[in-house]
Write a structure and sequence with these properties.
Helix 3 crosses helix 4 (190-200). The chain has 10 helices and 8 strands. The radius of gyration is 19 Å and the shape is globular. The chain is an alpha/beta fold. 35% of the residues lie in helices and 9% in strands. Strands 1-2-3-4-5-6-7-8 form an 8-stranded parallel beta barrel, surrounded by 7 helices. The longest helix is centred in the N-terminal third of the chain and has 41 residues, at 3-43. Helix 3 links the parallel strand 1 (148-150) and strand 2 (180-182). It has helices at residues 3-43, 132-135, 163-175, 190-200, 220-233, 256-272, 285-290, 292-298, 319-333, 360-374; strands at residues 148-150, 180-182, 204-209, 239-246, 279-283, 302-305, 339-344, 378-380.
Length: 407
């Protein structure tokens, strides 16, 4: 049998395994988020420190919340990994080596390939007041070794954090040298509490419109909430980008066509409200490859969740190389677009997934590798462990907190 045929078969097998792993991770994350959403809705009126009047945020990765994309490379988690053709990475901590195979959606890299189709490569809300800030929105930047951090304003028990606690967390994120902070949705008064604290520390905001298993119709109120928030503040200062959906297609919460249409709808509403910055969506690299003709044109920039752990064939020492290769594939998938990794990391506890082993030391190695090879374009998942989540199949869902590694 010709070598290329064998290679293709192996690659497709890797995609299938990584996809199943990621989907299990997502199911756990989404189930937990649904429970939180129901509780926040029921308790909001009586919770004086919460203000949870909107949908719950999902942190993928959280671990991810949604993490496991169909990646071979995974995306970052249940607040949310995907696999592409597998380029095996050795466990050597210094210089990972790869097998001749091309990288696909989840090569050895939540966070977190070679395209399956190319095996040879791996309304009118009140307008905001016009101002210099509205006319000149901040453009996404990727300087330094760690661009952004995901954040969910939840206590260990899943309740909304008090504004003072949120302010303390945001101050800590800023002190660690991050330039941006990512929110998954508008719940728990995130727009007010997180945005206020972020602005006081000159942190950019990556806002999110979360699409749950209730579908797009249930997500629309978040668009109005964001536009109203901006109008109330009189500007969009500090909003670096807005992300509509977090692996919504991967989780079958919307079709590619439905998501693309919703992104366009959201962009129009934000523009009418005075926002002129980038509006995008985020999926696993594999999903973006499969639906490139629909999803790439719908996005102002190309973004994916890239998680090496869920690949199962990537060691902690190979995480950086994996993320970098996935970003390269994403650039090939959405030609001409700036590319960003909106969720990535490594769990500190749990059971192994193939050669991907959780642990404090492994997490440190993985995160350091990602910082060196792709940190300037990556959003790390997550600030602290998400104790409010279920542990999941490998017992890793609560253990993606990595903020301490940036001290």
């Amino acid at each position: 049998m010709h070598f290329s045929t064998i290679l293709l078969a192996f690659t497709l097998l890797g995609f299938s395994l990584a996809s199943n792993i990621h989907r299990k991770h997502e199911e756990i994350h989404n189930k937990r988020h649904a429970n939180l959403f129901a509780r926040h809705t029921a308790e909001a009126p009586a919770n004086s420190t919460c203000g949870c009047t909107t949908i719950w945020s999902t942190i993928y990765g959280e671990p991810t919340l949604i993490q496991p994309n169909n990646y071979g490379s995974m995306t970052a988690p249940s607040s949310s990994a995907t696999s592409t053709s597998l380029r095996e990475v050795t466990s050597a901590p210094e210089t990972p080596t790869f097998s001749p195979m091309p990288i696909q959606d989840a090569p050895a890299h939540p966070p977190k390939p070679v395209k399956p189709s190319h095996p040879e490569v791996a309304d009118p809300a009140p307008p905001a007041k016009k101002s210099a800030d509205a006319a000149k929105p901040r453009k996404p930047s990727h300087s330094g070794s760690h661009w952004a951090m995901t954040y969910s304003p939840y206590t260990p028990s899943g309740l909304c954090k008090a504004s003072s606690d949120v302010a303390s967390d945001v101050a800590s994120i800023a002190a660690k040298g991050f330039s941006s902070i990512r929110l998954y949705s508008t719940d728990c008064s995130g727009l007010t509490n997180v945005a206020t604290a972020a602005q006081s520390h000159n942190l950019n905001l990556i806002l999110g419109v979360y699409i749950s298993n209730s579908g797009i119709s249930a997500a629309r109120p978040q668009i109005d909430e964001i536009v109203t928030w901006a109008a109330k503040n009189g500007h969009w200062k500090g909003v670096e980008m807005i992300v509509v959906g977090n692996e919504a297609v991967f989780n079958n919460f919307a079709s590619a066509e439905e998501l693309a249409s919703f992104v366009s709808e959201a962009r129009s509403a934000f523009k009418s409200g005075g926002y002129n910055g980038p509006v995008t969506l985020t999926e696993t690299v594999d999903i973006l490859s499969k639906h490139a003709e629909v999803l790439c044109p719908a996005s102002d920039i190309a973004a994916a969740n890239i998680h090496a752990f869920f690949n199962g064939q990537v060691t902690a020492s190979g995480a950086g190389a994996f993320v970098a290769s996935q970003l390269d594939l994403l650039a090939e998938t959405c030609l001409g677009k700036e590319v960003y990794n909106l969720e990535t990391g490594w769990p500190s506890k749990g059971s192994k997934n193939g050669v991907a082993i959780p642990g404090s030391w492994e997490q440190r190695i993985a995160v350091e590798g990602i910082r060196k090879m792709a940190g300037g374009k990556s959003t790390f998942f997550s600030f602290v462990d998400d104790e409010w989540k279920e542990e999941g199949e490998w017992g890793v869902e609560r253990s993606w907190g990595c903020g301490q590694l940036f001290d």
